[in-house]
Design brief:
410 residues; 7-stranded parallel beta sheet; binds 1,4-dihydronicotinamide adenine dinucleotide; binds 2-oxoglutaric acid; oxidoreductase; D-3-phosphoglycerate dehydrogenase
Length: 410
């Protein structure tokens, strides 16, 4: 259990990895935080563990792997900001069970992904990647053979969430027919229609675009049998996660021209930094667009994400607010002038709230406001009390059996 008295803001340490946009630093600095370190790439497990020993807030993107083993060695870590949508790189349950809140930016880069995949669909339908590669090698492939307009083609969208739905609207504006498949019932936008099943979508689509999260149920969702269900000459776009498509059968289908082309932005194994080498069986295939996981990497998206996630970290650090956390009970209690705020994260077992309130009643501490919320295996209580009693109450709260973290804010 960790008890943390309200630290001077200059002592609250932030570590931002993977080139998080400077807009995040602006937000943190404007909120009074100055101990901020930045690193351009991701770190290895050993480096990460080393750097995290005295860090309170960590910012990452998709490449930093925060496993249960790493989280077990982060004694001071209060929260993680994932400056992206996906949180599959973080063991969310392990973080929650250690009282570490995780926040992300669920919407800010969705438009960027939708724009990229639509552009790739157009380029692949025109055979541009091959013609471009040939021109770079001194060749000249002026031909209409195998080149098509996007208008009138059927786009199959797998995962009709924030990205899938935006793509649907953009694609219809280009004159495409849209079918989609989702495990949740979704309102079709425009003239899009739900496919009866994934096989039905695969058989009907000229272009298939994947927009599902990384989950056990989406792992290798497009393996050899599913790839074989796609129309001969179809195109596959994957800007979701590298574990969704099995690369070996895809490479075979592309080499044999059973599929006309593919655009792949995400891979089962991705380089940790821009200095590391990228290996893939898809390298060298001219009918494949390979991009280094940049679906959400636009200036607009990154600047917005920087602000959004940094603000969530500041709100948690300053007020204990956990609204929209992906793994934590959500609590937002308005601040009260002149009061000190105690935050208590504990295992969700019966009796902890009464133990907390016993501390207050035995100490004759008047509660100005209190809120408990639970999620999964933990409970989170925010209590506002008179300033004079807060240090002593914090020490007592931190000794309650089941306590994971406790902090006082003032
Ligand atoms: N390449 C890149 O740079 C980026 C990649 N992404 C990836 O894209 C994914 C999707 O992003 P959003 O659309 O914002 O997420 P979202 O959560 O809004 O939508 C995902 C949709 O997939 C559906 N789904 C889940 N399991 C499914 C299954 N087995 N079959 C069919 N549908 C299923 C969900 O019900 C949901 O509607 C993210 O989880 C992330 O992994 C997101 C942003 C940037
Ligand atoms: O920009 C990144 O680092 C990751 C983007 C992504 O995959 C996401 O937002 O889930």
């Amino acid at each position: 259990m960790t008890a943390l008295a309200s630290l001077d803001k200059s002592k609250i340490r932030f570590l931002l990895l993977e080139g998080v946009h400077p807009s995040a630093l602006d937000v943190l600095r404007a909120a009074g935080y100055s101990a901020i370190e930045t690193v351009a790439g991701a770190l290895s497990e050993a480096e990460l563990t080393d750097r995290l020993a005295d860090v309170h807030f960590l910012g990452i993107r998709s490449r930093t792997q925060l496993s249960a083993a790493v989280l077990a060695r982060t004694p001071k870590l209060v929260a993680v900001g994932a400056f992206c949508i996906g949180t599959n790189q973080i063991d969310l349950d392990a973080a929650r069970d250690r009282g570490i809140a995780v926040f992300n930016a669920p919407y800010s880069n969705t438009r960027s992904v939708a724009e990229l995949v639509l552009a790739e669909a157009i380029l692949l339908l025109r055979g541009v990647p091959e013609k471009n590669a040939m021109a770079h090698r001194g060749g000249w492939l002026k031909s209409a053979e195998g080149s098509y307009e996007i208008r009138g083609k059927t786009l199959g969208i797998v995962g009709y969430g924030s990205i899938g739905t935006q793509l649907s609207v953009l694609a219809e504006a280009m004159g495409m027919q849209v079918v989609f498949h989702d495990v949740v019932h979704k309102l079709p936008l425009g003239n899009a229609r739900p496919a009866g099943s994934l096989p039905e979508l695969l058989a009907a689509s000229d272009i298939v675009s994947l927009h599902v999260p990384e989950l056990p149920s989406t792992q290798w969702m497009l393996d050899e049998p599913e790839l074989a269900m796609m129309k001969p000459g179809a195109i596959l776009l994957n800007a979701s996660r590298g574990t969704v498509v099995r690369i070996e059968p895809l490479a075979r289908a592309l080499r044999e021209r059973r599929l006309a082309g593919a655009a792949i932005d995400v891979f089962p194994v991705e380089p940790r930094t821009n200095q590391d080498a990228f290996t893939s069986e898809l390298r060298g295939l001219d009918n494949v667009i390979l991009t280094p996981h940049i679906g959400g990497s636009t200036v607009e998206a990154q600047a917005n994400i920087g602000v959004e996630v940094a603000e969530k970290l500041v709100r948690y650090s300053d007020n204990g607010t956990t609204t929209s956390s992906v793994n934590f009970p959500e609590v937002a209690l308005p601040a009260q002038a002149g009061k000190h705020r105690l935050l208590h994260v504990h295992r969700n077992v019966p009796g902890v709230l009464s133990e907390i309130n016993r501390v207050f009643s035995e100490g004759q501490v008047n509660i100005a406001a209190q809120y408990l919320q639970t999620r999964g295996g933990i409970g989170y209580v925010v209590t506002d009390i008179d300033a004079a009693s807060s240090e002593r109450a914090l020490q007592q709260l931190s000794r309650i059996p089941g306590t994971l973290r406790s902090r006082v804010l003032f």
